[in-house]
Amino acid sequence: xxxxxxxxxxxxxxxxxxxxxxxxxxxxxxxxxxxxxxxxxxxxxxxxxxxxxxxxxxxxxxxxxxxxxxxxxxxxxxxxxxxxxxxxxxxxxxxxxxxxxxxxxxxxxxxxxxxxxxxxxxxxxxxxxxxxxxxxxxxxxxxxxxxxxxxxxxxxxxxxxxxxxxxxxxxxxxxxxxxxxxxxxxxxxxxxxxxxxxxxxxxxxxxxxxxxxxxxxxxxxxxxxxxxxxxxxxxxxxxxxxxxxxxxxxxxxxxxxxxxxxxxxxxxxxxxxxxxxxxxxxxxxxxxxxxxxxxx
Length: 296
Prior knowledge:
- This protein has 296 residues and is α/β, with parallel strands linked by helices.
- It has two domains: 3-181, Rossmann fold, CATH 3.40.50; 190-289, Orthogonal Bundle (N-(1-d-carboxylethyl)-l-norvaline Dehydrogenase, domain 2), CATH 1.10.1040.
- Helices cover 46% and strands 15% of the residues.
- The chain contains twelve helices and ten strands.
- It has helices spanning 11-22, 34-53, 59-67, 75-78, 93-106, 122-126, 160-172, 188-204, 210-221, 227-234, 236-250, 259-266; strands spanning 3-7, 26-30, 69-72, 84-87, 112-115, 135-140, 149-154, 176-181, 279-280, 288-289.
- It has an eight-stranded mixed sheet, sandwiched between helices.
- Strand 9 and strand 10 form a beta hairpin.
- Helix 1 packs across helix 2 (34-53) and helix 8 (188-204) packs across helix 10.
- The longest helix is centred in the N-terminal third of the chain and has 20 residues, at 34-53.
- The model has no long low-confidence stretch (mean pLDDT 96).
């Protein structure tokens, strides 16, 4: 396998393209606009610069990595010669189904179709294609160049052969693949999102403030980042979307998103991406609590 197509040049997509290109794969990065693609390539370049500064790669490695990435706005043309397509579009089920129909219609019949979805059913995605046995989940973690885990999600029809290919391919990226079955939220978000939601409820109920909650979880539970800071990093809109998938998928009220989370997303306070969530990111390197959530 040599030719990889990545759909979406946002945070996850450009990270996935970065990693594949760094490990010698030829990558076609697809997005709907030249501006989005330029921003994605710029992010890859900056992240490669960080690796050069740390001594993880050389300047020549950076140049070679960028040379392996071709960007294009035409999805049909972008998947024409792909051996693997990794979809990394927004976590919206209707959008993903639309993309997979188009990929299926234009990619070679032997091509494996993967989704980087963090919660949406691989079985549901596979059902809109004519190659359900070749559809699989590759859930990379953010930031992709740094995080080692890939959740490899088997849909109901995903073949053993395709699963094994993706497990071995993940290792070639120096990642640690973990095979999981296709249930809402898979493993990572089925456990993580209720914890984040509970942290938000704890804030909403006035038990403690933002910094206090995050400090307890960092110092008391050994988490590298508190749950509210992590929610901002993930994106509050993404957290809300995943919780809704869990709530709909399991029909269990324990997954119901907190009203504070719902209100913050409606207000456009989405975390890092919007400049404000539980923290204010006017100075991204020194975020401060955005506002007083506990009214006294």
